[in-house]
Specification:
By secondary structure, the protein is an alpha/beta fold. The chain contains twelve helices and ten strands.
Length: 283
């Protein structure tokens, strides 16, 4: 049986992967798909791809594009979530900050450099006309680290996915000041070039299985209740999230790849752009 190790964040977006693994669909196709959670997000997965600790990743579009340009020997093989990711901009519940402008020149908690929380801080700064060269960051590793940093005022604000952090807003750990959606499809599926070259047939089958599930995911009976239970989310929040989220079964468009790169270049997150074919692999 062929082993393929895949990484992703422990969030509701990835329930289709867990359902297909639990149903044994990959094993019936002679594939042992091993899921590894990455609470640290995209930056941690980029590092794991480089270190050959995982073969594939469900990863933020802007993060993997930045890292491929920086030398990560991986390629995007498909868009996973077509809709934007809604990043909530959070402060500690007892913080004195109430408006987005209050956060200019303040320190942002990020999971690690190169992570989505890091890159989106630049996007948010640009959206608000701030000097991006003046941004300050505190590395907090994951959501638990952000809770500690904001609760003790070691950091001033933290950007993370709106619905994942909603329970922390509800229980008055965080206050959400605003939202900042990504300007592009948020999650893609990436794979190491070595695996694409040596296990193309198996990866193609993995995509076929997951795409069959995501195509009908919203129509699975009581899927909203399943998501609410498994991810400790309010049912109304899950229903709202489902209404906003669209899965994809297609390769990312060249125009999107260029748009992301242009934005990253403008923000000085990358120092050059590459042709779209250097970022993707058509299986």
């Amino acid at each position: 049986m062929d082993i393929i190790r895949i990484g992703g964040v422990p969030e509701h977006f990835n329930l289709p992967w867990h359902l297909t693994i639990e149903e044994g669909i990959y094993e019936r196709n002679n594939i042992q798909l091993e899921w590894i959670d990455f609470p640290g997000g995209t930056g941690a997965m980029c590092e794991a791809l480089r270190n050959k600790e995982i073969d594939m990743a469900i990863i933020l579009t802007e993060g993997i594009i930045k890292d491929i340009i920086a030398g990560n020997p991986s390629r995007i093989i498909q868009t996973y979530i077509q809709s934007p990711l809604i990043w909530g901009i959070h402060v500690g519940y007892n913080s004195n900050y109430n408006l987005i402008d209050d956060l200019q020149h303040k320190s942002a908690a990020i999971s690690r450099y190169g992570s989505g929380s890091h890159l989106m801080a630049y996007v948010n700064a640009q959206n608000n006309g701030w000097d991006t060269s003046a941004l300050r960051f505190d590395v907090i590793k994951n959501l638990d680290g952000a809770v500690e940093a904001l609760s003790t005022n070691n950091s001033d604000y933290f950007m993370w996915e709106h619905f994942t952090t909603k329970p922390l807003v509800d229980n008055k750990t965080f206050r959400r000041i605003a939202d900042c959606p990504t300007p592009w499809p948020c999650f893609v599926i990436a794979a190491r070039e070595e695996i694409i070259n040596t296990k193309k047939k198996q990866i193609t089958k993995v995509l076929e299985i997951i795409n069959t599930t995501t195509t009908d995911f919203k129509h699975i009976p009581s899927i909203d209740k399943t998501l609410s239970h498994r991810y400790d989310q309010k049912l109304d929040d899950i229903k709202e999230w489902l209404s906003l989220t669209e899965w994809s079964q297609s390769l990312i468009k060249n125009d999107t790849l260029m748009e992301v790169q242009e934005q990253l270049l403008k923000l000085n997150i990358i120092d050059h752009m590459v042709a779209p074919e250097k970022l993707v692999s058509k299986l």
